[in-house]
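General statements about sequence and structure are easier to judge against a single worked case. In the encoding step, the backbone of a single protein was reduced to a row of integers, each denoting a local shape. The record that follows shows the chain in one-letter code together with its fold in token form.
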Amino acid sequence: MLNSKEFVRELQLRHESAWMNPNVGSAETALAALPLTRADVDDAEARLERFAPFIKKVFPETAADRGLIESPLTEIEHMRAWLNENEGAQLAGKLFLKRDSDLPVAGSVKARVIAYTQMDMKRTVYYDTFTKEEFYSNNVVQHQHTNSRLLPDSDNDGYHEFMMSLPIGKCRIYGVTYTAGIGFDPESELMKISDDGKDHNDDILNLQISNDYAGNDVSKFISVATGYAINTKDNSEVLQVSLNNIEEMRQYWRMQLNRLAAKVDIQWDAQSAYEKNTETGNVQYTDVKISSFSFCGGAATDGTTGSTIGTGSGYLFPTLAKKNNLPAISGKKDFINTSEISRRNGRVYHYTFPDGHAPKITFKLETTTTASTGGAVKKTSDYTFDLKNVTEGLLQPATWYKINVKVTGKEKQKSVIINSFK
């Protein structure tokens, strides 16, 4: 058997050579001295399984092995026989060669250590931002402040693959699209959340967007879209990240971002109020007009009159806000009819960001009748439409609510519950 110096010399001469470690010990002794356990091996295997879809995508040559980087094993029976005969190895069973030279992608211990430490970082809020151009580009996007990857290729349903390393424990994944630089900056709000390793999911659920966002620019107002990822296995929004079970790592989420704003479209017709009374033959009213329309979401009041102040805001994730019983934050918007034409037969619509609560819609109805004495009788009344029965009291995002109101001149209750829309 060659010693170390002789072996190096043979390698320099490019001679076929074999070197046996003179300090080799028994497997029992070596394994007992290792700080690693079987649990560490299972942990590493599960981690590689979890990264496999990403590796398969960026290294197509690993597709045959589903993205797993594993060295092929080849039985070398003749080598086992030679070692037993010439070196007294006394090897029983089978001997295999682990062919690292044939790996489709060169791996390194350093790369795997980085993957491991990133998985166990004590962050509780990860975020990443991408421009529209980046999202549809042909390059993998990687930002330094997170350990996420955005892959441009989409599947048959139009979903783009996004891979993010997550800490162990329970987590949720949220998404928001918005136009940067015009008053709404979710990044700055996320930066306010403490990076202390604690659960800050409530801070995410409380993220808000003003109903004054983008002013009167409807295109920007309706460009905001939000959503949260759903586990395709059980349709839950909560993922339990664990390394104890490989099957738990084979979980895929899908997140669909939907337009956040809701549209409330109201059309009224007071023409019927001018029709003649079938009993007297006289006109019911000589003048009927709706002078104003108010959308009230039930946000904070002024503390004195109890009236709602300001337009308020909506939650970025209103359906989750509803589940968690967060308070109403949407405000009030008044529409004053200045056109005589629109007072009798008019239409008005309002875009708002939902806050998990049903709003109220109030019409100010002004009427004029002729008294028996011949004089004019004027009356002003407020009629409120209560939407609390609609979709369990939640104004849904990305929904167009169309309300048609017909004023007939007959007495009606002042509060009307709306439980269906057309």
